[in-house]
Amino acid sequence: MAQQRLIPELDAEKLRENALTSIRLGVEDFERCLRQPDEGGDPARALSAIRNLFAGVLLLFKYKIATCVDDPADAATLIFMPPEVLPQSDGARGVEWLPVGKFKPTTIDVATIQKRFEAFDIEVDWDVINKLQKCRNHLEHLHPANTLGEVADFVAELFPVLRDFIQTQLQEPPAEILAEAWQIMLLHHKFFVDTSRQCKLAWNDAGVPKGMEPWLDECQCEECASSLLMPSQDSLDLGELVEHNDDRFRYACLACGHGGLIGPLMVEALNKAHDYDPRDGEEPCVENCYQCDHGTFVIYEQACLWCAAELDYTECSMCDEALGQDDQENGGLCSYHAYTFEKAMRD
């Protein structure tokens, strides 16, 4: 009983109520941020939409954890952050690990929620949740007016996770507990999926280099950060191809109408995914291709994703050292053995 007094009280039903309220508010903010100003729209609501939606989902997760046990005191130990466990002497030159302090008044974070889910065999797509968390953190540092497209993507990706969780884990009809908010999310998700499919099909006729196709999927509008990008009809009508005309081939954003060059966006997405910090002794993974001059030569694959150029020599015939683009004129030798060979020939 003494230990239970150290644990904050938990009202599981209040968790549920707050979760549903946050989700409904998030959807209302989402709707409002997409409207035109003369129709009562407010772009600044984009950030609050993300905050409310993500917070609502986490509260719903915590509610599920709390309902996995019958005793409210046990539920509280699962939801509130536990005291730190530290090593102490057992008095016999041994060690024992004991909790120090009280349960914190704050509830568990995303990483701890995931551990609780694993412990109680609660399934959810954590790849999507982690991606949404990164999106939320990213948007916290941007002006909301420039993130409307990314917010729309966020809501579309959240929908199937929320739908499956409510149906399979809470065993309730989503439309019943979320009411109008559910219908708004449903319609938006359908629109997003259908439009994404149309965009993907349209790029089939745009001559995107095959190796760069995965990075086309990572491109976002420079104006609103939406992923709903179509090839510009003007570029298609002129018979331009991304592979050969990346200095002219443009995209059109279906979310905000902005247009720009698609080639640099794909290269940027590739390089962003392979970012490195030389201060930590890291080496670059991508460099300019000697054949096509695009920053798309992936060093560890020894190939260019834009023009498909590959190395004629991949290992030194003398020492098996990996060779790069700079070594190709050495006839299959690394720089050291090429120098040694040339020196021997001169002598």
Protein described:
The structure is a single chain. The chain is mainly alpha-helical. It has 3 domains: 2-197, no CATH class; 206-310, no CATH class; 311-347, no CATH class. Helix 3 (45-66) runs antiparallel to helix 6. It has helices spanning 2-5, 12-34, 45-66, 72-79, 110-119, 126-139, 148-169, 174-178, 180-202, 213-216, 233-237, 262-273, 335-346, and strands at 84-89, 95-100, 229-231, 250-253, 259-261, 286-287, 297-298, 303-304. It has 13 helices and 8 strands. It starts with a helix and ends with a helix.
Q: List the total number of helices.
A: 13
The number of domains is 3
- How are the strands of the largest sheet arranged? 3-4-5
| Class based on secondary structure composition and strand pairing | mainly alpha
Low-pLDDT segments: 1-5
Strands, total number? 8
Shape: flat
The average pLDDT score comes to 88
Give the biggest sheet: 3 strands, antiparallel
Strand content: 5-15%
